[in-house]
Write a structure and sequence with these properties.
118 residues; mainly beta; seven-stranded mixed sheet; four-stranded antiparallel sheet; 11 strands; globular
Length: 118
């Protein structure tokens, strides 16, 4: 059974950097051909895809946030991370990590609430 668990601060001050980590168990983040994504949902809005790290370490970030987003991984810890710089209250959301295969998400973390204070 694959499990994903997000961790990070629940409260971040505006203009600071948000850092979240997703710890994966029951499966390796280097297993072909999985991809590992960050997704968020702001209050009253739909899901927003933020970016992904593939099994080979390559990353892609959503164009709208590309200048503020960094996605990385630590294969020794089987974790992948999201950094979002210069946050504003508009970045307040529940942040999820998820596993993707063939354009379908099959496992999700429970989500972590992040609030940006102004």
């Amino acid at each position: 059974q694959v499990r994903l668990q997000e961790s990070g601060p629940g409260l971040v001050e505006a203009s600071q950097t948000l850092s979240l980590t997703c710890t994966v168990s029951g499966g390796s983040i280097t297993s072909r051909y999985y991809a590992w994504s960050w997704i968020r949902q702001s209050p009253g809005k739909g899901l927003e895809w933020l970016g992904v790290v593939h099994y080979d370490g390559s990353t892609i970030s959503t164009p709208s946030l590309k200048s503020r987003t960094s996605i990385s991984r630590d294969t020794s810890s089987n974790q992948f991370s999201l950094q979002l710089t210069s946050v504003t209250p508009e970045d307040t959301a529940v942040y999820y990590c998820a596993r993707e295969l063939s354009n379908r998400y099959d496992y999700w973390g429970q989500g972590t609430q992040v609030t940006v204070s102004s």
